[in-house]
Amino acid sequence: MQAKLSEWNPESLVPDVASTHISLLPKLVSSRIGKTLTVDSKECLNLATHNYLGLLQDERIVKSAISAARKYGIGSCGPRGFYGTVDVHLDLEQRIAQFMKAEEAIVYSYGFSTVASAISAYCKQRDIIFADEKVNFAIQKGFQASRSTIKYFKHNDVEHLENLLIEQTKFDDLNCKNTDNKSSKSSKKARKFLIIEGIYMNTGMICRLPELVALCEKYRVRIFIDESISFGTIGDSGRGVTEYYGIPTYKIDMII
């Protein structure tokens, strides 16, 4: 048995990558993430980042991050239900709510999960979601988790969205008329949601928020906005697309 074990030569779980496959060869990043990156000893312009304001290079933020790490410790990213809630979480939530002039704010541990889980937390199987056809991948994963009916409208096309809303309104009215028992579940109108982005990640276009808000008020639709890109980048003080258009945040049901 010992002889057989000594003869055994395990194969690598991952085969070696041929030098001809340039895109698959590992890259060594040896610098701090910022405007530029040092990749394989070569300085490169970093276009794969949301660090639009250059905050990662702000020494005040760097020192504050180091101080927080020493005080609270660090670990892998995880939910607060597992890692716990500390004073800085609550303080940050309060400050964000005040800055955005919102009732409350909730801080998640990871941006992608924020978008995906927030949608599925509110939108359920019987609901209808109207969404721009160019929404980002995180929003699409939220749609899958919600199991809601998704109706896409053409990119930034408010007129097409209104046509879909008119069709849905007619369907709801007809469904109610054809139901004998008005208290049954089948007679209830489906809740309607509009989910858009302040600035669309896939196109860079700014949403037509004033017209969208008007439609939501007209057809009684709840509106959620993903401001992953627009927050901090547009608006006189960086409050995002609501400030950019001068629309009060209370007219938006949820800003992500």
Write structural notes for this entry.
- Pathway: Lipid metabolism; sphingolipid metabolism; Sphingolipid metabolism.
- Residues 43-228 form the Aminotransferase class I/classII large domain.
- Keywords: Acyltransferase, Lipid metabolism, Pyridoxal phosphate, Sphingolipid metabolism, Transferase.
- It is an enzyme of class 2 (transferase).
- The chain has 256 residues and is an alpha/beta fold.
- It has 3 domains: 27-71, no CATH class; 75-109, no CATH class; 114-255, Type I PLP-dependent aspartate aminotransferase-like (Major domain) (Aspartate Aminotransferase, domain 2), CATH 3.40.640.10.
- The chain is built from 9 helices and 7 strands; from the N terminus they run αββααααβαβαβαβαβ.
- Strand 6, helix 9 (241-245) and strand 7 (254-255) form a beta-alpha-beta unit.
- The longest helix is centred in the middle third of the chain and has 20 residues, at 158-177.
- The chain starts with a helix and ends with a strand.
